[in-house]
Design goal:
2 domains; alpha/beta; 8-stranded parallel β-sheet; TIM Barrel; 3-stranded antiparallel β-sheet
Length: 322
């Protein structure tokens, strides 16, 4: 744990997951200001968008934050992100190219890579990762993993031989969960859904309320809501769109019921179609329940929407408590 805290310059080994457009600058800043590690999801950002978001974070905190890039998509904002002084770059859904790694090192930034098993861990280590994010299928959102976090973490720790920090990610939402994985050898934990249900997150109010009202058994790992990102698996809260699709026998793309339905609009007035990967954020209008509400299996521990700083404090106190 100490190696991770020093590497990332943080007080608590609690990392906020890069939950797409829901990871607002206010959320990242609040988490980092609390001594944990906040992050921005910049995968789909232009350099100008990244500059705007980073500027907002810097206006709120002087503490470090990280930027995540999903490598299924071109990281157009990577260079500008580094130019603006973000000290840690994290990658998921792919391995960075030699050019990306050289760029990161030229700015003396640190690099984390999401992995899911022994082989991907060894590959990330060979590329010079400073830390690994081990994901299990319990995670919410788009899930890279195909095995449980317990199994994946064991493999990744064996591969790393404890030479670099390994973060546990997937279904973690409490200090008790944190203790479980830290006792297994993780240096820290990543939490997504717990921070989505915070005052500062960019999630729509009804999305937050759904997280609080739902439990682990209300989530499902599926390919249903994938319009905009191929056939990737994702964990969501079961909704009317999923149930309609399942009732019809889980038909393939092109034959899904209501596939061309426009069920809402985003804050820019752009249509949101049924099965879209877009999660409902603040300012989205329409049938929020039918949209994609990502969630991990840790929902049983999420019973209230709170400030991110309170969430960090409560998780840490539960972790160090008896």
């Amino acid at each position: 744990m100490d190696k991770l805290l020093e590497l990332l310059d943080i007080q608590y080994p609690i990392i906020q997951a890069p939950v797409g457009g829901i990871a607002t600058p206010a959320l990242a800043a609040s988490v980092s200001d609390s001594g944990a590690f906040g992050g921005l999801a910049l995968s789909w950002s232009t350099p100008e968008d990244a500059e705007n978001k980073i500027g907002q974070v810097r206006a709120l905190t002087s503490r470090p934050v990280y930027a995540n890039f999903v490598l299924n998509f071109e990281p157009k904002a990577l260079k500008r992100t580094l130019e603006l002084g973000i000290p840690v770059i994290q990658f998921s859904w792919g391995m960075p190219s030699p050019e990306m790694i050289h760029l990161i090192r030229s700015y003396q930034a640190k690099m984390g890579i999401q992995v899911t098993d022994k082989e991907s861990a060894l590959r990330a280590i060979s590329l010079g990762a400073d830390y690994l994010v081990c994901q299990g299928w319990q995670a919410g959102g788009h899930v890279q993993a195909s095995t449980s976090l317990q199994k994946a973490l064991k493999e990744v720790l064996q591969a790393s031989k404890h030479a670099l920090p390994v973060l546990a990610s997937g279904g973690i939402s409490s200090g008790k969960d944190m203790k479980t994985y830290m006792n297994l050898g993780a240096s820290g934990v990543v939490m997504g859904s717990r921070f989505v249900a915070s005052n500062e997150s960019g999630a729509h109010a009804l999305y937050k309320e759904t997280l609080v009202a739902s439990g682990s058994e209300d989530t499902v790992l599926t390919v249903c809501m994938n319009k905009g990102w191929g056939s990737t698996f994702h964990r969501i809260i079961k909704n009317s769109t999923f149930k309609m699709w399942e009732t019809e026998g889980c038909p393939i793309i092109g034959n899904r019921p209501g596939e061309l339905d426009v069920i809402g609009k985003n804050p820019k007035g752009i249509d949101i179609e049924r099965y879209s990967i877009s999660a409902p954020t603040v300012g989205v209008t329409g049938d929020i329940e039918a949209m994609t509400c990502y969630a991990g299996t840790g929902l049983d521990n999420i019973t209230e929407i709170k400030p991110a700083s309170v969430i960090v404090e409560e998780i840490w106190n539960e972790y160090i408590g008896d």
